[in-house]
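Hey,

The postdoc asked me to send both predictions to you directly instead of through the lab channel. I've kept everything plain text so nothing gets mangled by the mail client. Protein one:
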Amino acid sequence: MKRSYMHKIVFMGLIISTQLAFGQLDAPKVEAVYGGLINDIAGIPLSVDTSRIFIATESANSLFYADIYSNTTSPVYGAFSVVPGVDAAAGYGSGIQKIAAHESSGLVFFLHNNTIYSADPNTGAVTSVVPGMNIPALEILDDRMLFVDGTDLHFGDLSPAGVGTPHVDSPIASMIT
């Protein structure tokens, strides 16, 4: 009886190892990823039925955007386009790790080499907004921009044109040492 169980276990082991060996002989499947890996995603509403999605990727064309229309029973997704001014010729590359979008202006803000920039997807204008020494975080909530430089929290208002004005109490120094 012991011998019968041993044969069954060996037979099952052979079947499983054969399945694993054959499973690894297939060629890897290449996924259709537009622009490489996605580092960050941000979105803003453009109207009551349209939103714009921005993505930062690990590619020479650093920032992309697409519009999504939802005025029908199923959403209609527009094709992704490179944000002009932040394309391969601009040299930002895969260094953009954090983005934030501003609804009122339609601008996308991004971090590159410890500087905050804004880009206009309609005109291609790219502007240096805030140079910093160590900016690891950036966020936009309504018309308020917040970012961390070193251990200080900076914040201020953004105009409808996307121009920032620091708050009088900004920055707030961190209590963490």
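Protein two:
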Amino acid sequence: METVQEAIDHYLPKKKSGEMSLADIREEIKSRHNFREEQIQYICSEISELELKELQSKKQTGSGNILGSVYFSYFMIVACVAIFIISYLRFDKLKTYADQGIEIDDVQYFLPAAFMLGAIIYLVRHIIRIVRFKK
């Protein structure tokens, strides 16, 4: 093994399988191969980084969780817009009743406003999730 890339390719599967730890890899490289300390440090950091990237990609793709899917976010955006429109229409109807002199409870005003606020919050949350997913 003469190059840094060969060392990474050789030791990465051993680290992934749990056969060797980074400390073991570092010691073996020092004792068996002619790498400088900077190269050994680079090899170990690269192995750690590649292992972390693989774990992160498995977590995102292999989760099978529908709630983390971008399609769920699209669905939630449509649902939030529908909830906002329905709540606004209900709120507007209550204002019309109040203008006609019909007595309206405070709770009847509060609920449509709460639904509109909740719809806006979830709308923004899922739009941000979609923007991050596309990066």
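Summary for protein two, as requested: The helical segments are 4-17, 22-32, 37-61, 70-99, 106-134.

Thanks,
C.
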